[in-house]
Amino acid sequence: MNKPIAFVTYLLLLSVSPAVRALGPNPVSLQNVPTPPVPGLLDSADPIVVNKTAAIVLGKALFWDVNVGSDGQACASCHFNAGADARTKNQINPGQNSSHASGQVFSSLPSGGGGPNYTLNTTDFPLHQFSDPTNNASTLLYSTDDVIGSQGSFSGQYQTNSRFTDTNDQCVRAPDSVFNVNNVGVRKVTPRNAPSVINAVFNFRNFWDGRANNVFNGGSPWGDRDPNAGVWVKLTATTVAKQRLSLMNSALASQALSPPVFNNIEMGCDQRLWPDIGRKLLLRQPLQYQQVHYQDSVLGALSSSSASALNSGLKTTYQNLIMQAFNRKYWSYAGIGQFGMPLAAGQAPYNQMEANFSLFFGLAIQLYESTLVSDQSPFDLSPVDANLAPTWTNINAGANTNALVTSLKNGFNLFVNNNCSLCHTGPDFTLAAMETNSTLLTPTPGRAFGPSATPIAYGPDAFGPHNAAASAGVTQYVDTVTRNYNTNLTPNIMDFGFANIGVAQPADDPGVAGLDPFGNSLAYSDQYVDYLLGNSSAILDPLVTSNRACDFLTPLSINVSQAVPGYFTQTDGIVADGSREGALKTQNCANPITAFIPTVPAAEANLSSGKLSTGNVGAFKIPSLRNVELTGPYMHNGDMATLPQVLQLYARHGNFISDSLNFNIAQILVTIAQPQNTTDLVNFLISLTDDRVRYQQAPFDHPQITINSGVVGDQSHAVSGNPLSAQLAQDQKIQVPAVGASGLASSIKGFLSN
């Protein structure tokens, strides 16, 4: 069908050009928003978890227990402060994700210090400094590929562990070639900053690069990508079999399995396996060496403490908690021999409970972290007007109330008008919450969320009138990829919920463009290209084939007879989206002429033309902004220490220009960095802090934990003589006390605020 050129141009302006897009959706309250469902976990006739309460107890104990690591590292060691890490000593990685040799060598930071065991201070930030902080074309005064990460383990080669006592595994340890001070070993540091675990249940994938798969396979972080993963299931009293597991919406469980076993920096020694951790913990008292408050919101009933004395541990064992929480078929088989053997000679084969410990650990951690939802911030509690803008009538700042409300209103307007909500979309302020955002946008009679005074109905207007969410590419359908412009106005296929905003050079860290251990791209968009090419064997993850082309921010194909540069049309060869599957993807399409994809021959012919180009290099998961005042340093590399520094980054449109730099950053006005606007935007961001997080009230209360914070000495000298090895430095400790459900009178502090 031929169309006049003028009409085609008009259609392209509506559906292609970013210049005419509407403002982004409004941020909305997290109140009464459900966490993503996990079919088969709790709700089937034969569920995996049979006692959710016991599983949450198990998960909280495991999350905070220093016995989980090889040398005193718990999950909470990097997530103890508003779910993030506020330590300042020995927190620098030289940038080991870099493709350059400089990634193995520490830089001198702006203060002149740096390297292992250095203590960060305010003059070290930001890591990229310009003569004009609002202009990335001004003189670059300082730049480094060093990263502010999180201190972890000494690592070493795993040998064995004790089943009853001793936090530390037996490992062959020696100073690391990078992490040492004059050949005295210090703890390794991660090459990325630790994001908060609070509200992480809403992320479709976890970790900055998305490697914690949405699908939990029971044994590794890699979901259906891992050909060897599975769980041991008791079939009869005398038979057991290893079966595949594929639990959707379980990226938290996938993430939980990585630090203790699949990463020798964060928690464990090399070659340690999940059954080894099971053997170490199962017969032990949970939190064996850590005080548990008698009023802990989850653990209090099992705490050994009383009102008169705080004591260590729970009145049970990990084995008992697993037996209460999980289906018998995963732990009750009496035989041994099928499940493998420990590395150390002379030890008994693993049993079923040890072999399935990764299953228990991942799902228990997920169920615990699913309770860590901060939905009672001033922003959440504010009633909204007809346009879903907060009225702030809940604010009471005494004599300063009127001034603060005025500031909050301007901050909110600046956030929306500068299109910040095009990436920080929905109640968790991130496109990465794809399942949740889509659920809220699905018309569901009788369902509402948000503040009780002004509930928001589920449906296409849930994020603002006139289907405002569509301007961010968010619809009621869960898309894992989109197509959008870079700042050069070249369209790229990219992973939904990930963006390159120019914080670092793409060569410093590939982000979601990295590879899994099997040599596959982490990026779903690379798989989508394979889908278009007809390479079905390359489709590794669910939902890749379910993406709807008509939801893309800029089309892939347009059903017109004329050739359009950068887009597939009838001249190339196109077919209706969904025709391959026998179910057309045309429902609720805003512009039906874009509900098309190229034919396989057309895709093959244009593989090098740019029409199938992807834009993932240097792209990272878009983080939530909740409790952001407490979760610095900011960005995947810890580049910035303060929120005003973050606003300056956006005002100058990033530090570095690249072919994958996301177009959305180009829409931000430099005026956001003006003093009053900065004040107002920061006030708005502070309004996203839940006081329960600030004061460690339930569900954010916790057991006591000892945190390793550098080693005795400084960047020039480290005191050797660690009990683990004479060649390693002595740990310097921070004591984080046990807190009950009522929390503390004093607030926790953000990064560099103590």
Structural overview:
- The chain is built from 16 helices and 22 strands.
- The relative contact order is 0.17.
- The strands form 11 sheets. The protein has a two-stranded antiparallel ribbon. Strands 2-3 form a two-stranded antiparallel ribbon.
- Helix 2 crosses helix 8 (357-369) and helix 10 packs across helix 15.
- It is of the alpha+beta class and 754 residues long.
- The model is unreliable at 1-11 (pLDDT under 50).
- Among the domains are: 52-66 and 172-369, no CATH class; 484-605, no CATH class.
- It starts with a helix and ends in an 18-residue tail after the last strand.
- The protein is globular.
Give the count of helical stretches: 16
Give a short account of the largest sheet: 2 strands, antiparallel
User: Count the strands?
Assistant: 22
* Range of strand content: 5-15%
N-to-C terminal Cα separation, in Å?
Answer: 68 Å
Rounded to an integer in angstroms, the radius of gyration calculated over CA atoms is 26 Å
Strand pairing plus helix content: what structural class?
alpha+beta
Report the average pLDDT across residues: 95
Poorly predicted runs are 1-11
Shape: globular
Percent helix range = 10-25%
Spatial strand arrangement across the major sheet: 1-4
